[in-house]
Amino acid sequence: PMVMFGSGGKYVEFLDDTAMRSAYLCESDIDEMINSTRIGKIIQGVRGEISVDLPEIKNVIRNLAQMILNHPEIKEVDLNPLLVTNDNKIFAVDIRIKC
How far apart are CA 3 and CA 31, in angstroms? Predict the structure, then answer.
């Protein structure tokens, strides 16, 4: 099983801003996924903007990977988009799980 992080939406293929890793993630894998994408750099704060709650983003990635490993009947999961509010709360706006 694989996990992908990056810019989503209808332009995902055009923007080519994703990183994939095995769902058997370690902390450095998650850091590499985030840091290797443009959106990962943006969410860490650009030009004085406040960073999103990066530990919570990492928890989302880690927990999603673990869910996939714990439930082999899951064939595909899509969380797109994740919305970060002004007070740094994170919500999955649209979730699709295919078994």
Answer: 13
Cβ–Cβ < 8 Å for 60, 70: no
Give me the mean pLDDT over the 65-76 stretch. Answer: 97
* The pLDDT of residue 11: 82
Domains and CATH numbers, the chain: 2-73 (3.30.470.20)
Q: Any idea of the CA torsion for 25, 26, 30, 36, to the nearest 10 degrees?
A: -100
CA atoms of 30 and 25, how far apart (whole Å): 7
Q: Which amino acid is at 33?
A: M
pTM value is 0.92
